[in-house]
Amino acid sequence: MSYDTTVEGYLKRCKQRRDAGSLQDLLYAALELRLGVEMRLAESVQAVDGLTVARRRQWKVVHLANMLQTVKWSNGDDVLVMLYHLKDPDETFELHYFPVTKRLTETVGRLGDFLHRNERLVSDQAAVHRELTTLVKEGYGDLLMASSGELLGLPQLDPKTGSLNVILKFPDGDPRAAALQDAFKSGRQYRIDWVTITPVGQPTFYDAEPAAAASDSEGA
């Protein structure tokens, strides 16, 4: 069986290890999460024009995150919403870019401390287990959000031609992919609007508990 190196693959294995819950599983979950963040940042970097091959091959999370700060469409943790208005007939597609946030970058750095020789793994495993549980849970939620947008990277405006370059990714079977592709090929007129959303505070993620929900509904 091949090893899935997509962000979705890393997220899936991270959740499986996280849910298993042992210290060993959490360490492997931390590794999967770290690799997933690197992959998500690499996707965003590929959308940035004017980078050398060496810079595109960079793998360190902090360096990748710093590269993305050179793009001027948004500031740090801002969420970018692209409204793509098509004419004849009129229809609008709402597309999103969710960044790898500063908190997620810091989380990955803290997890990295446990992926090397660490005296705390010998002297205080209970505390390490608690810390890893929190970090992996938050990091998983943050990466899940960062990978949920249709825009892989921030849009790039070509200064010579004035054209807008975007890289899109849709879930399998999403009808918007075919609709936009047909619109591009047919040359339909369009207008693009942008909305930038600056998050306030930190998100909190709650895991769905279908089993509990089902038993509650049965007892009602």
- Secondary-structure element order, as H and E? HHHHEEHHHEEHEH
> What is the strand tally?
5
Q: Proportion of β residues?
A: 5-15%
Could you give a short account of the major beta sheet?
3 strands, antiparallel
Tell me the span between the first and last alpha carbons: 44 Å
Please, how many helices? Answer: 9
Q: How would you state the average pLDDT, rounded?
A: 81
Helix content: 40-55%
Outline type: elongated
What's the short story on this structure?
With 220 residues, this protein is an alpha+beta fold. 50% of the residues lie in helices and 12% in strands.
Structure in words:
By secondary structure, this protein is an alpha+beta fold. It has one domain. It is 50% helix and 12% strand. The chain has helices at residues 7-20, 23-46, 53-56, 61-68, 102-112, 120-123, 125-146, 175-186, 210-219, and strands at 79-86, 91-97, 156-157, 164-165, 190-197. A 3-stranded antiparallel beta sheet has the order 2-1-5, with no helix packed on it. It has a two-stranded antiparallel sheet with strand order 3-4. The longest helix has 24 residues, at 23-46. It is elongated. The protein starts with 6 loop residues before the first helix and ends with a helix. Residues 50-73 and 210-218 have low confidence and may be disordered.
